[in-house]
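Subject: Interleukin-1 structure
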Amino acid sequence: MELQKRTVDEELKDLFHEFKDKEAMNDPWSFRMWDFDQKYFFFDNNVLIAAPLYSMLPEQLMAVVPNDNLDFRNRPIFMGLTGKTKALCCLKSVTGEPQLVILEKNIMDFYRDTEELKDFSFYVVTAPNKSNCWFESAAFPGWFISTSIHPNMPVGLCKGGGTDIMLFHFEKVASTPK
């Protein structure tokens, strides 16, 4: 019997429901992300890269919690690296373009905060097939997490219309008992 793959909408509905009680939640949920070209995330030399799964590096799961301080209908989330205190953030580069950076921050601290923290927030936009999604920067509307069409390149931000890949699979990884 084949298991039914959950949609992005189902995963997010559960995430937002489970994280209603800020005192009860101590750990973020872990998600596996990979782009439409089957490139997964890896963390190498302080850089988040997208590469085929057969890479020699261990796959980097993403730590995810909801951001309750922004409109929940946009499904705002914080994302970081699992097992580390590193968070994804969108900042303006020296050229004035938004860029994706990784900062030494714990997303659980953001989750308990009452600030909007838009620089660290992403809106999850579900694709029409409900199995894939885009991650739009809350701080820079119209800019999305993206990967290069080439393997082993850094994960970044882009506007639609270019050659970068913005469509992702997003799947919760079953938690293991501690």
